[in-house]
Amino acid sequence: MQESAAASEPVSEREVTITRTFDAPARLLFEAYSKPEHIKRWFGPKGWPVTMCEMDFCVGGKFRFAMTGPSGKQNTPFGGEYLDIVPNRKIVYDNGFESEGAGRMVVTVTFDELEGGKTKLTIHTVFESIAMRNSHVSLGFEQGTNSGLDQLAELTADLAARNA
Amino acid sequence: MAQNSAAEGLDRVFAALSDPTRRAILARLAQGEATVNELVEPFGFSQPTISKHLKVLESAGLVARGKSAQFRPVRLNAAPLAAAAEWLGTYEEFWAESLDRLDDYVKVMQQKEKRHAGKRCGK
Known about the structure:
A: alpha+beta, Alpha-D-Glucose-1,6-Bisphosphate, Chain A, domain 4, 7-stranded antiparallel β-sheet, globular, B: Arc Repressor Mutant, subunit A, 2 domains
C-alpha cells in the first residue's frame, strides 16, 4: 500500500532530531518517561495538559494519550506501541493520531549520561513520509510564523468556545 | 488514496496558514464577512493578489464565498482550523515546551530523592 511508497523515500528527508542536555541522571529522565503520574507532569506544551494517559510500559505494550487544549475539549487521542526499552538508556515507540489518514512515526529516545551528572536526551523521529514530516515540522514555515500560529490558536479556541 | 485525504487536507490548511497575509485575512474575517474590495483596502495589495490568496484559503476550506450577492462576500469557515488545532504548534515547539517542563520536573524528582535519601526503612 502506501507504506511501500513511503518506505522508498529516504529516511534523511523524513526524520527530525531534537536534543536537550539535562542536569540530571539518566535514570531519573528514564523514570519520568516510564509512568503516567510522571508523564502528566511534563509531557505536552503549556496549556495542553495530558488528560488521558494509559500506558503499559514494556516491550510490546501499548500507550494511549490525549491532551486537552485551551478550548477545554479533549483532542484526538494518539498512541502506539513500545517497540524497544533498554532501562535508563533507550525507549523506542511508534506513535500516531487516532484519526483517519493520520500517518505513523517511530520515535527513538536515547539517554546518554555525560560527565558531571548531566544527561543528553535525544529524540529521533522518523515520519512515515516526507509529506507527513513537512506537515509537522517548521520546515516550509517562514520565520515569525509562530506568533501568527499563536494568534490562530487563540482565534480557534475563541471560535470553539463560541460554537460550543 | 482516500486514507490520505485527511492528511492532504491538513497539508493544505498548513500551506494556507504559512503566509502572513493569509493569516491576516483570516483574522479580519474572524470579525465578520467582507467583500474582496474590503479586503484590498487594509492590506495594500492589488485585487488580483488578494484574489490569489483567497483561492488558496478557499481550496483549504478556510473561507467560503457567497454565491448570490454581486460582491460575493467572503466568510471564515472555522471547521478546518478546529481540525488543525491539535497541530497548530510545530513538532519542535511541542518538544521544546515539553522538555522545558521536563527540566523543571526532574528537579522536583531530584528534590524528592534527596528528601528520601536519609530515610531507612530497614530493608
